[in-house]
């Protein structure tokens, strides 16, 4: 039986990312990590837009989150909004998604020797 493209790209994963005593719950699309997204991100980085490329990718990958402003109003997932969160927050969210997507990957932060080798 053939597989429909929409079935392969309709995937969703939900995870919690701790921020102090609070946690942010977000849902993302693993299929959004693809060659087209990578090419766009690399092109932006070549133009010196490293932070903007990371914010753009995160806004494209995340489909929902429970982030609210100080008045309790839902914060939309949009590139311009993600770009205002700061490098530390955007990087933490990105690392959490990658750790969920690639749980066997070894990074300098979780490798006993500090190497960046990947598990085979």
Give an overview in words:
It contains five helices and three strands, in the order αββααβαα. With 120 residues, it is α+β, with helices and mostly antiparallel strands. A three-stranded antiparallel β-sheet has the order 1-2-3. Helix 2 runs antiparallel to helix 3 (50-61) and helix 3 packs across helix 5. It is globular. The model is unreliable at 110-120 (pLDDT under 50).
SSE map:
Elements: H1 5-9, E1 13-19, E2 22-28, H2 35-46, H3 50-61, E3 62-65, H4 79-83, H5 87-101
Antiparallel strand pairs: 1-2, 2-3
- Terminal-residue CA separation: 31 Å
Report the biggest beta sheet as strand number plus sense, adding barrel if it closes: 3 strands, antiparallel
The 3D shape can be described as: globular
- The helicity comes to 40-55%
What order do the helices and strands follow?
A: HEEHHEHH
Number of strand elements? 3
CA radius of gyration? 16 Å
Low-confidence stretches: 110-120
Q: Determine the mean pLDDT.
A: 84
Oligomeric form of this entry? single chain
- Figure out the total of helices: 5
Structural class estimated from helices and strands: alpha+beta
Strand content: 15-25%
**Order of neighbouring strands in the sheet with most strands:** 1-2-3
Write a compact overview of the structure shown:
It is built from five helices and three strands, in the order H-E-E-H-H-E-H-H.
Which properties best describe this structure?
single chain, 120 residues, alpha+beta, 3-stranded antiparallel β-sheet, 41% helix, disordered C terminus
